[in-house]
From TrEMBL:
Pfam families: Inhibitor_I29 (PF08246), Peptidase_C1 (PF00112). Residues 1-19 form the signal peptide. Residues 43-103 form the Cathepsin propeptide inhibitor domain. InterPro entries: Papain-like_cys_pep_sf, Pept_asp_AS, Pept_cys_AS, Pept_his_AS, Peptidase_C1A, Peptidase_C1A_C, Peptidase_C1A_papain-like, Prot_inhib_I29. GO terms for biological process: proteolysis. It comes from Dreissena polymorpha. Belongs to the peptidase C1 family. PANTHER family: CYSTEINE PROTEASE FAMILY C1-RELATED. This is Cathepsin L. The keyword Oxidoreductase does not apply.
C-alpha cells in the first residue's frame, strides 16, 4: 500500500510538471522563475534557490555573465516553442551558471563502450511481441524516486542501479534503492573512474562478479570518489548473473522496455538538454552538437500528444519534468537513445 501511494504521488508530481505551454507568456513564467524579470533578479533567485556561494567576486561575476548568456539562450528557444517551432521548452536549473563545455565535462562523461565484455548476452526479443502503445513502470512499482548525483560525474552508476532496482522489484516484489556509492568506490578495476566517468556494461559485470550490491540505506551516496571500498557481503540486497545488451534500434528498445522493465541507456546530451524544462525533446542536431554521452534510465514510453520515451535522469527533481524527460520516439533514434542499452540478468 505504501509503495502504491508513493508511486501515485510521484506520478501526480510528474503530471503537474508536464502541462502544455500555449504562449510565450506561459513559457517565461513557467516554474518558480518569471523569465521576464531582470537578469540580476533571476541570478539572485538562482543563488538563493541553489545555495550558490562563489569563492571570489571575480568568480561570481564570471558566473553572472554565463548565467546571463544562458538566459538569453533560454528565452530565444522558448519564443520558438511558443509559436510551435519547437516541441519542448527550457528553463533555469542548477546548471544555468555553467557553460555547456563545463557541464559536458562534468556530466556527459560516460565512457564509450564499443565492445561489451564479461558475462554478457544479447537480448532476443519475443517473436511477434505486441508492444502496447504506452508503458510506465513507475505504476508497477519498479522505479525508485528520482536521485541526485550532485557534482559527481557518476551517471553510469545510477543507470546501473536503476535497471537492477527494476529487475529486483520484478523478481521479489520489493523496490529497494541500491548503492551507487559502492559502485563508485569498488569498481575501479573494471575501468570506472569515479566522478570522472565510467561504463554501464562493465559495472553490471562487477556486480555479477562481486557478487551483489548493497542497498543505499547501508552504503549511502556521498557524491565523491575519494573513499575506500567498504563493501559488506552480508548486506547485499541484489545479486545478478550477468547482463544483456540490446541490439540498436528503437523497435528493439520498445520491445525490451515493454517486456522486461526499466532499461539503462546511453545517449548524447547537448546544450538544450542541459537546460531542458518540459515538453517532448526533439532535436535532430543532438548528436552533432554534443560533446559527450550520459547514462539514463528508460522507464516507459507513451503516444500522446506524440510518441515519446519516458526517461528518468539523476539530476534531482530540480531538472526537467520533476527529474524526468520525454524524448521523441520513432524519430530517427534521437540523441542515440536506442543505440546502447543494457539490463541485468537476474
Amino acid at each position: 500500500m505504501l509503495l502504491s501511494l508513493v508511486t501515485l504521488s510521484l506520478s501526480m508530481l510528474f503530471a503537474r510538471c508536464t502541462s502544455t505551454l500555449t504562449s510565450y507568456e506561459d513559457a517565461i513564467q513557467n516554474g518558480v522563475y518569471n523569465m521576464s524579470q531582470p537578469t540580476e533578479t533571476l541570478f539572485q533567485m538562482f543563488k538563493d534557490t541553489h545555495e550558490r556561494k562563489y569563492d571570489s567576486l571575480s568568480e561570481e561575476e564570471k558566473r553572472r555573465q554565463i548565467f546571463a548568456d544562458n538566459i538569453r539562450y533560454i528565452n530565444k528557444h522558448n519564443a520558438k516553442y511558443a509559436i510551435k517551432e519547437s516541441t519542448y521548452y527550457l528553463g533555469i536549473n542548477q546548471f544555468t551558471d555553467m557553460t555547456y563545455e563545463e557541464f559536458a565535462k562534468q556530466f556527459a562523461n560516460l565512457q564509450n563502450e564499443d565492445i561489451w565484455t564479461g558475462n554478457v548476452s544479447i537480448f532476443l526479443p519475443p517473436e511477434n511481441y505486441p508492444a502496447p502503445s504506452s508503458v510506465d513502470w513507475r505504476q508497477k512499482g519498479y522505479v525508485t524516486q528520482v536521485k541526485d548525483q550532485g557534482k559527481c560525474g557518476s551517471c553510469w552508476s545510477f543507470g546501473v542501479t536503476g535497471t537492477i532496482e527494476g529487475q529486483l522489484a520484478r523478481q521479489t516484489g520489493r523496490l529497494v534503492p541500491l548503492s551507487e556509492q559502492q559502485l563508485i568506490d569498488c569498481s575501479r578495476r573494471y575501468g570506472n573512474k569515479g566522478c570522472k566517468g565510467g561504463y554501464t556494461g562493465r559495472t553490471l559485470q562487477y556486480v555479477s562478479d562481486q557478487p551483489g550490491i548493497e542497498g543505499e540505506a547501508d552504503y549511502p551516496y556521498r557524491a565523491g570518489d575519494s573513499y575506500p571500498c567498504s563493501f559488506t557481503k552480508s548486506k547485499v540486497r541484489a545479486i545478478i548473473r550477468g547482463y544483456y545488451t540490446v541490439n540498436p534500434g528503437e523497435k528493439n528498445l520498445e520491445i525490451v522496455t515493454a517486456s522486461v522493465g526499466p532499461i539503462s541507456v546511453s545517449m548524447y546530451v547537448n546544450r538544450n538538454f542541459q537546460h531542458y524544462h518540459g515538453g517532448i525533446f526533439y532535436d535532430p542536431s543532438c548528436a552533432k552538437t554534443s560533446i559527450g554521452r550520459h547514462a539514463v534510465l528508460v522507464v516507459g514510453f507513451g503516444s500522446s500528444p506524440s510518441n515519446y520515451w519516458l526517461v528518468k535522469n539523476s539530476w534531482s527533481y530540480m531538472w526537467g519534468e520533476a527529474g524526468y524527460i520525454r524524448m521523441a520516439k520513432n524519430r530517427n533514434n534521437i540523441c542515440g537513445i536506442a543505440s546502447k542499452a543494457v539490463f541485468p540478468r537476474m
